[in-house]
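User: Please predict structures.

Assistant: First:
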Amino acid sequence: MTFKKNAIHFTGIGGIGMSGIAHILAETGSAVSGSDSELNNITRKLQGMGVRIYEGHRASNLPKNISTLVYSSSISSDNPEIAEAKKRGVKIVHRAEVLGSIFNRNKGIAITGTHGKTTTTSLIAVMLKKSGLDPTVIIGGEVDEFAGNAMSGKGAYTVAEADESDSSFLHLKPYHAVITNIEPEHLDHYKDMSAIKRSFKSFIGNIKKGGVLFYNHDDPVLKDMAKGSKCRCKSFGFSKDADMQAGSIELDGFKTAFNCIYKGKNLGRMELGIPGRHNVLNGLAAVLVGLEAGLKFKEIVRSLKDFCGAKRRFQLRCENKGIMLIDDYAHHPTEIRAVIDACKGWKNRRIIAVFQPHRYTRTKFLVNDFGRCFAGADKVILTDIFPASEKPIKGVTVKIVYDKVKMSGLTDVSIFKKEDISDHVEEIARPGDIILVLGAGDIKKIADDLTDRLGGKDRKSGDRVKELKKLIKGRVSSTDLLSKHTSFKIGGPADIWAEPKDIRDLSRLLEYAKKIKIPFFIIGNGSNLLVGDSGFKGMIISLTSDSFKKIKIVGTGVRVGAGHSLSGLVRTVCSRGLSGLESLVGIPGTVGGAVFMNAGGYSNPIFRNIGEFVTSVKVMSYDGTVKTIKKEYLEFGYRRSNLDRYIILEAFIKLARSDKNILKSNCSHFLNMKRTKQALDVPSAGCAFKNPADFQFTCGQMIDMLGLKGKRVGGAEVSTKHANFIINSNKATSKDVLSLIEIVKRAVKENYGVDLEMEIKVI
């Protein structure tokens, strides 16, 4: 089955599994749309790629030319979009079928198991990517290295997290398979352990000839299954009988270190930035897969030394005044036990566990285990069960978990309404505490709120955030690390981080900043930006909400919001047969930033600048006035425009008609050229310096001729691919980058008499 180039609609596109598949199909040329009851960061990213997203499920959401509707197990059969698809005779398929169509074409590496599959998938994907194998990746969690949960690569491997919850992983035909463990779980689907075993046996039977099953030797169920398997098997574990064994394990805060002993031979020491003995097992699995893929052990170690986990997997949300806030997806007793055990890496700290049970069926079947899994916590705060798609079961409430926890001997247990938890935690928290927010439901909102309350740099910032939350509809925070919002992956927190929902919100933010006399800075995707290590003393306003990402095409005219990604715009217009912007493909950042900086090429006529196509720009002045500036009043030059006194809201662009296939080929050509010559796969802010006017050499040529390629200061490095790129090669600080910039500027001045002008904006 193939879905390439089709018009595909995803019902429930905001789900972590659905969104990854939609991402891959959108990147490989399919016309993708989707809907969900609630939009999120993932849907916003898809929207930036040119995917049409609808909030809410309606029959009218389905495109006229739809060929396929994709749904997941969480979508009910009476969904209006499914009903409309049936009415039209549209093909309706489960997401697992679509994943299988992507996965089964390549050397698929599928990772499954009751626990640990997201982290293990992330480790393997990052390892292959950083080792130059360019995998296609679909993960059930967001990973910083991919700036999301999916990546389309051109290498031989496809790495996917395989969902066992509804047996949908049986659609996959893996070349290699990793199984982390097998325990009673998803008993609403499987009914008993025997059914779970049968499903996993069938999955193992799907492994292709020549492939390998990598399994946890310490799991007795898996150990037994491996004996009866027809494929090659390699094991990992703490046992001396495992093929890959961990030795000399060291757990110290977020640092986990261990020796990798393969069939009795010590290969060397592995270090990971994720805590807990369970992550030692995940790391061993990744090493085994890497060796099988032909990587050297040193390559594997180097590729994973900076790995710090997926979001909501022991994610440090903030650490302030001695209080550490950890957010984790743990919703099974074994996972909760592992998270609490990981806290032993910090000595003599009080552990406060906040837990939201997930699904009535899981709570009913595993209530005794839930009672025992909080051993090691000092305080347990429980809230009502998150139902997911389930209907209530009589007698199954959070109270039965409370009773079992109390029976286990833990006395400090309480039940709170979800809306009261943050107040209570803020009241009882004290220096030295580790606060764990656990669960797979909407408990993440508590983690978000506590991050704002506990992580603020000072009380004044916290008070201002509370004021702004009442003033605007969008998101406001005082703890967002700007390293998470910039392409350089560098920078401390802003005093205030604000995401206006619409133009009215933006106007109110400007008015508020003026009123309290604080500086502000507008960003989109944070490219071409270097933020100081201490953060930004003021307000960062991010134009990333859906209101700033709208796009409308009429004929050859395009009206596009400033927050829309530039790459997404290029893909969208090319798919409509509109030419002119192809050479801009692969340039990071948003349309607003691109117009402001007149993004494009230099000295080579085949590379166009976006300003050539802009016919007018809708802007907001700093006093909140909105107006449209027509073409005759716009001035574009090399990396500049005359729009520095305004905030760009929308751009109006005029393009030309052309053949879609030719445009797609041109995009691929330009992207391959850039991938070959530029450092696109590592954190950077793009070109560091503006090319000097009327000079015989470009910046890159001068820096290269001075032998500065590969020059390093700390974690900052002059790219060996393109000398005008400074890359974040190893946890670089802003100080590292600025020191390296000064070295380069001084060398160019001394040898060529040129004063280099920064293209990167430093704040």
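Second:
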Amino acid sequence: MKHQRRRPTRLIAGILGGALALSASPLIGVQAAGAADPLPPLANPIANGAFCDDAPTTNPFTDLGGETASTRQVIICLVATKVTTGTTATTYSPGGTVTRRQMAVFVKRLADLANAQETGSFELAPLPAYNGVTGYPDVKHGEPGAVEIGQLTRAKIIAGFPDGTFRPNAPVSRRQMAAFVNNLQKFLSGGTALSTDKDFFDDDAGDSGEANLNALAAVGIFQGDGQGRVFPGGPLLRRQMANILLRYAQVLQNAVVIESPFAPPSNATLAVTPRTALTRELAVEPSAADDRLYRASGLQAGVTYTIQLFPAANIQGTTTRVFTEDGTTDTADDGSVAADITVVKGATVVGADDNTTAQPLDGVITFTVDGSAMESIAPVVFRDADADGKLDLKADNAPIADEPFGVGAVTQYLPPEAASTTGSFTVTAISAERDAFVSGGATYYLDTNDTYRYAGTAITKNQFNSMLSVGDSGTVTYSADPAGVSVFNITTDDVDATATPSIAIVDDGPGTTIDDARISYTRAPTNSPGVTYSLLRATVADDGVDNLCGTLDDVMPVDGAFATVAATQAAGAAGVFVFSDNDLAPGCYTYRIRATSPVSLEAEDSAIPLGEASPGPDTNPPISMFAKRTTNAGTADFDAGDVITLVFVETMAPPSATTSIQLQDGDLTRGEITNGVNATFSLNTDPVVTGEPGSPTRPAGTVLTITLTAAPNTTPSATCPLCSPLLAPGVQAPADVVASSGVTDSSGNAWFLDTSDVTVE
């Protein structure tokens, strides 16, 4: 089966340049005199608008007086990021050497910082979790830097010496530093290291670090001594370390991969009142009680902000906000909304409209929005830097805002209630919170005393709600009096399955081969929660010419070739669920999602992109999707009789006699739970129903049950050097799984805690 695994978006080394103005330090200088190729300018992290712009400038150290102003500023900036600290509270020791242990800690923190500052334009790879193994005989578990060295070794960012040692206390050489940074670049980008065909230095010919030194010089990170020398085997000083790490951060910022942690908040803070659902009586327009009052805070004094109303559908995401682009203009599409901004800072707006401008008072702007039709509306407050009246988006990237902004909560306005009448309806919108639907610019409310039918056959109110969706049509005899009896009859049940599914080829089932399809689907927004969905699969006949699935010369399947491969299921409250199609034979496949009305059984199919896969070894670390104390012996502490259930996305290896996990609670008490010592670990051998929402049945080998026979051990030990009761003697819920040993999938890959559900309540 052909397979193309999804990887983090790769950085293209050629676009990572854009270095800025020159500064000076012992590794920086003017144009190299004897180098074959001219050096590019430095990636300058302290320039205006650069990574360290708006960073603290107060110098806490007494030993930076001999440094250049630029190096001093870089050191203060790096300390502010918490990538490094001083050697004491008042000294930095800029001329001190950096050990390999220290460098591993710095690089690990820089990787975490880059992931935390992602712009959303690129997906950086997070570091693998520490599995308790450092990989070197001279780096013991529990020693300072052991976690960082273990993580970076797993990520292939650092490596040891030919004799298998790491030599953590040895000084870092410049060639090693270049390798660390370029390996970090390769890992974060999903496989693309920096490279160049230029040769910038005279003293590294044939050196093992030559390629990395030249690659980093090409983007303005290394510049040597200004005389064509880079001293590849020389030690790295703490001032040089600070410059190199922040120049790499600047390279990532230049490529719009990360944002500066010191930049002003990109989101204005918006709070919305009222937050409760409107009553039926307040739904009729016009009514001041139906207005929404917004409050934008955290704004800069003396700055004019634009307030603009957007269709909620044009703003996606909750953490990273993605806007619909207005054509190709690199601005956000504010669409058309049936609402007005009527009051700003207590004053009535003359000529009410869907956008206006205002300056904050004490950092706050209040404004009122009034709607007149069924439409989901979200206000956006943004700093319009170029005064074009539009929220600017970043060019050549995902439609992410390029100006500070804030988004208010979505609200929905209903048109006036329908008059008492007999006629027909076609559903254009549904308001579940008000138990109503909209047709022809009027709102129809559903009461428990009304009569409900499908094609003339009596159904319950719950059945009616379960099949009601946008596009349904029928007849109605409506009574505007809540005490009266309305008759609703659906004659056409329109089921929608047009939402776009996504597919990934993974190892979800038994064995060590990547031969399972995982299809994620979000319930179509026009469907009611009662609509059920099933997965259908068909084989694609690859013509064998290009050896690619789904190209135009392949023979696509006809409708009759699709067969159901996954049990029908209902979407949860959030409308999101996952299908798995496991143990596929080699070949090309395409899928459909079928949505079916629970009452009329009418259905609609949604085609899904082709899954391309090829069998191969499983190197993906397993993740858990559910972690919970499913049995509580009666106290807040974890103790004898408690049962912890962990549900994994793939088949796990049976626990060994030494398998363990470590829990850490909110007061930082850490305790270890070990199989056969204070608990018994067991893996399900048959399908089992878990305590997850909806209680799905999980296949054999995916549910790890931990039954405590005693409280977790909080005494430091060789396997848990960080165990400590700290502020309280027992480990209390909720607690996070912060480390594990021996929890692996059937291929031996260790549990990946970073992206797992690990909070045990």
